[in-house]
Design goal:
193 residues; alpha+beta; five-stranded antiparallel sheet
Length: 193
């Protein structure tokens, strides 16, 4: 148990006003990072065009706790609006600081959460095991393949370097997973059946 004689406690008490002022900047810093990540949209649209004529981008940003950019083929759609599966860039709004697991992440995202897509997720996980292992990606609950993308440079000085890093991660994920995804999605039963 901490006591008043603990130098760390005393330091905090002596400087608490300044410490609390600095700590309050956390939400402003997170909002600034969210804004920069949202600005990558035009670059991802260009990337989608480079990847193929039938590659589409779905953007889910406004009001989302987990903003995301979803790259997918027309054939991966479950309805007019949403793909069943995509290769996505996502982050946690207000909690992303671009280090470790507080980073944006890229991978295969299963969009619909019903029994048919549980089977699809398992099929994707099995079909991409080799690529996932080679890339060092992990598996998440609705992410058959997932990789956190921490910034390797001080991003506040040069966000362009991080932007290029994320675009490279998206491109590499597409190149690794497009063919197995296409194969699995084409052979899967339609969602809801």
């Amino acid at each position: 148990m901490a006591e008043l004689s603990d130098e760390r406690v005393r330091f905090y008490l002596r400087h608490r006003d300044q410490i609390e002022t600095w700590a309050a900047l956390r939400s402003e810093a997170a909002a600034a990072i969210d804004t920069e990540l949202e600005r990558i949209r035009d670059d991802i649209e260009s990337l989608a065009a480079d990847l193929g004529d039938d590659v589409l981008l779905l953007t889910k940003i406004e009001g989302e706790a987990y903003p995301r950019f979803l790259l997918h083929r027309e054939s991966w759609k479950q309805n007019a609006n949403d793909p069943v599966v995509s290769i996505a860039l996502e982050w946690m709004r207000g909690k992303t600081f671009l280090n470790g697991n507080a980073s944006a992440y890229v991978g295969i995202r299963v969009t619909v959460k019903d029994q048919a897509t549980r089977k699809l997720r398992t099929s994707i996980k099995d079909a991409t095991q080799t690529q996932r292992s080679e890339r060092g990606d992990r598996v998440g609950q609705w992410w058959p393949c997932l990789r956190y993308c921490p910034c390797v440079e001080p991003f506040w000085d040069d966000f362009e370097t991080y932007r290029r890093q994320l675009l490279g991660e998206l491109r590499h994920a597409w190149e690794a997973y497009d063919a197995p995804l296409e194969s699995v999605v084409q052979s899967a039963e339609p969602p809801g059946e």
